[in-house]
Amino acid sequence: MSAASKTGRRETFAILRTALPVTTGGVLGVLFGILAALCTVALLATSAYLITRAAEQPPILYLSMAVVGVRAFALGRAFFRYLERLASHDAAFRQLETVRVDLLRRLIPLAPDGLGRSRRGSLLSSLVSDVDELQNLPLRVLQPLVTSVGVAAIAVWVVAILSPAAAVGLAIALLAAFLIGTLVAARLAASAERSLAPRRAALVDAVLDYLSNLDVLIAYGAEQSGRRTVEAADAALTRALTARAAGVGIAGASLSLFSGLAVAWSLVAGIPAVSTAGSTLSGPALAVIVLVPLAVFEIVASVPLAASAWRQVRSSAERIAKIAPADVPAELPLDGGSAGWAPQPGAPVLELSGVQATWPGAEQPALTVDALRIETGERVLIEGMSGAGKTTLAHVLVRFLEYDGTYLLAGQDVRNLPLESVRGFVGLCEQVPYLFDESIRQNLLFARDTATDAELTDVLDRVGLGQWLVARGGLDSRVGERGALVSGGQAQRIALARALLRDFPVIVLDEPTANVEADLAESLLRDLLGATNDAGRAVILISHADVPASIVDRRIRISHGTLQSVAPQSPL
Amino acid sequence: MKVRPLDPRLLRYAVSARWFLAGGAALGLATTACILAFAWLITECVTGAIEGRGLTELSPYIGILAAVALLRAGLVYAQDLIAARGAAKVKSELRLGVLDAVRRLGPSFLAERNSARVATLLGRGMDALDDYFSKYLPQLILTVIVTPIVVFVVLLSDWVSAVFILVTLPLIPVFMVLIGWATQAVQRKQWSVLGDLSSGFVDTLGGLATLKIFGREFRQVKRMRSITTAYRVQTMRVLRISFLSSFALELAASLSVALVAVSIGLRLVDGSLGLSVGLFVLLLAPEAFLPLRQVGANFHASAEGVAAADDAFALLDDARKIPADATPALDHGALVSGVLSLRDVTVDYGEGAVAAPVSVDFTPGVLTVLAGPSGVGKSSLLAAILGFAPYSGSVSLGGHPISSSATERGWLAWAGQRPSLSMGTIADNVALGSDKVDLGLVGRALQLAAAPELDPDLPVGVGGAGLSGGQAQRVALARAIYRALDRRCAVLLLDEPSSALDHATEARLLDGLAAVARTGIAVVVVSHRQAVIERADSVVRISPRSAVTV
């Protein structure tokens, strides 16, 4: 096994460990589970004993214990089962706190650039469902496994007291059912299961392709070929599902078979002991050893489900370990320095020299900057085609990406500064600003939680959203899930409003017009740069589109990852 | 939500479901026979041994018992396979049915709903049906078949026990319904709280970069902890009540077995009942409850599955309401040409028309630019021509009226604002909709779309992944140009074709479009860019009042 996959395994198990509630609640849940299962077995055993003993017509006093037992076990089964569910669910939900917080801590140093550049949205939603899946480890894997093994052991022990031969048969049947139900079925189902996830993803991709391109497909008369792609993906998924069922079904069938065989064996072992002259087994005892296997196998029937739940939980943990590795890639900054904030008077507000930056997993640096100096209050446009390295530069400036070379803020080496101080000085308005599914107020307040409503209204006025705020019904109205109720331009304005509230001395605007209708772009840019027009604030505007020369002081061209200064008077 | 054991729409929209039910019923009958045989054989052996019969005498019974066990295992396996196949079949039937329904409802329907949501419904939403088919429905079938037969056999053997069972059995559904109502009442009260709490985690992860920019990431960890605690407290409040339902189930089933056992025991003591009857009934009593208990236990799985299917059914119902297209469509097989005329066309999505009625002619060989302020309805006008938007007025080509439904228009090539590329190579995308890929024409179309540097064999991922915005836009343009040239289309419609292009590339594209127009095609470009307007042969300005040719 390679070192990499070994680390992967270690991380997977570390994640699984965080999902295990080793708490009073968790232990109680398991205990109640075993008690409930024991009651199930005992109910059938005492009932069988009661009936066969009664047939011998003893004085009724001899039966009163059995009568009480039957009633008590019947009540106990339902009662303990209820307690088990409450305790184990409560424990699992408590553990969810640990799991979520642990994941959040892992993701903090990784976000956003360590999380893959292209499919961030779907990646996160699958991550969230994988985390929720981890709850099944205590609930649907360990709980039934521990209960089954515990009850099976106790049942075999009790049967052994009455008839050792029957006990051996029961133990062998249980073991065989267990092995076939888990290992063999897992082997058969595992390969089908492995192909399930990619086939599901392929189906969703094909469906999305069809739905989101429906207008084009109709206009080009190509709906049929789009539908055929979906059909093919669907057929592939159906094949995998059927193949898995063929494997998993063996587990259920083998349980049913071995339960019957265990009963048959108990009869073979018990009948001679009862019917021969010097009988070593009473009639009621025979009924007990014959019927106990039925009840035990009813409990053990949860093992195959637990096995398949385990496979799902483990692959969820594997995916989490892959997306959120505990080791942060070298291309991302882990910790900053610890120097205090001590700006040098007269130094340029921001200065890069000989800086290179590489994306995690990439071979080549995406950005090389020989020299970049930005003075206090300057407005600089950095223009270039998409893919030229503009966003890389923005992410280096706010320390999302690690760099080689020298990066100075107000004359201080950034490497010596804590990450928070850098981010308190240089603010970024992202290309796709994230809006939280909360009120407009909450979406602004986290930038400065001491701001008054008047300040919030003021800042929205400054970015040109004054009327919009009134139309939307004030600060308490919501922005919708992921800002669904807000247009691309409005989102940029809100992002800038946050940056203004925070009062960053340097603001980086990353492609503010990327998701804005072309004819609105220019007025948006004018509004954004107008709003930042404070004395002393430097603005770095990153754009691939046309920007009117009049609104910036200086233009710098970036192409193929390299910065080149353009003389201020250069023609358009 | 309506609680129905079996949704009739499932049978209407998914034919496989009927086969699944029929197969399940047959297996259910065989299973019942096995249960009865198994109980009878055990009883015979145990009572036989107590009466002093030896192993040799009883061994045929034991042999048959083993055979019945084997048969029963086979039935269990068949049941599992049928369930899995049934679920998969029904899912693909519903999936493709919904796909066709969406096709009938048209792109304007998807514009109102989120296409990602429909995709989720067809992907993970349908997976909720797995539990419904593999756990709930088979048990429902068994309940309908096994329980009555077993109760009847008990009645024949010992009517007192049958009365116990018949009295307790109905308690199970009654309790389930009562507790189900209580759960729903609690759930309704907590619903919005629970929704907020569970989406809080997604929101935090999604906005992590933003939180880092503002130095709020570690404060969020604390908030996450309190959100999750609140989530647990609220969820447990609901679960405490909904677990009561399974408590009632277990209690009714096990108490009834206890009552049967005790009553049989007491009657055995006074000799009014034989051991063989007593043991037989004791073994059968739990079997009468088992399927019903399983139905109850899997009731939630069923509710989720039905809820997911509900959305699909609603879509299918909507699509059934759409009348077949009555307007005589222009035969798109024929080579139609001539002037595309719009007369008093207004587009109304139901919120009032934005633009005044538009009347304009698009002439072959002419490059026309539609200009106007954002939001005035330029794209809506294109949607009307494509049949994607309801409109009033008339659209005709060479004097033939054009149908207003969303079908392929053989005379029209179009590229919208979104590139909408599919998985496949660039060549596959450019030649979309044509039976054979003409590589020479693909190259020429890419050239005309100012993208000669793109390799036609380059693979494109979902949603155009792998291409930059400008590249994707030019591939989409090449796709429209390919079609226009390949099919000799009368009209080429382009919506903001240069929005993601720089000046130099835009100029090359305009050269290409002029060349396309020279082949006798009416080229219509929606754009507000000065460079585009300058190259136009004719400019139509759409204003909120009326359209005037300048």
Structure, described:
Chain A: The chain crosses the membrane at residues 20-48, 60-80, 141-162, 168-190, 245-265, 285-310. Chain A: Residues 27-312 form the ABC transmembrane type-1 domain. Chain A: It is found in: Cell membrane. The complex is a heterodimer of chains A (572) and B (550). Chain A is α/β, with parallel strands linked by helices. Chain A has helices at residues 3-18, 24-55, 64-110, 120-133, 136-162, 164-212, 214-219, 223-275, 283-300, 302-323, 390-397, 419-425, 440-445, 453-462, 466-472, 488-502, 518-531, and strands spanning 350-357, 367-374, 379-383, 404-409, 412-413, 426-429, 506-510, 538-543, 554-559, 562-566. In chain A, the strands form two sheets. A six-stranded mixed sheet of chain A has the order 6-7-8-3-9-10, sandwiched between helices. In chain A, strands 2-1-4-5 form a four-stranded antiparallel sheet, covered by helices on one side. In chain A, strand 7, helix 17 and strand 8 (538-543) form a beta-alpha-beta unit. The two termini of chain A are 59 Å apart. By secondary structure, chain B is of the alpha/beta class. Chain B has helices spanning 8-13, 15-50, 55-105, 107-112, 115-157, 159-168, 171-206, 208-213, 217-269, 275-297, 299-321, 378-386, 426-430, 439-448, 469-486, 503-518, 530-535, and strands spanning 340-347, 358-362, 367-371, 391-397, 400-401, 412-415, 424-425, 459-460, 491-495, 522-526, 538-542, 547-549. In chain B, the strands form three sheets. In chain B, strands 6-9-10-3-11-12 form a six-stranded mixed sheet, sandwiched between helices. Chain B has a four-stranded antiparallel sheet with strand order 2-1-4-5. Chains A and B meet through helix 2, helix 3, helix 4, helix 6 and helix 7 of A and helix 2, helix 3, helix 5, helix 7 and helix 8 of B.
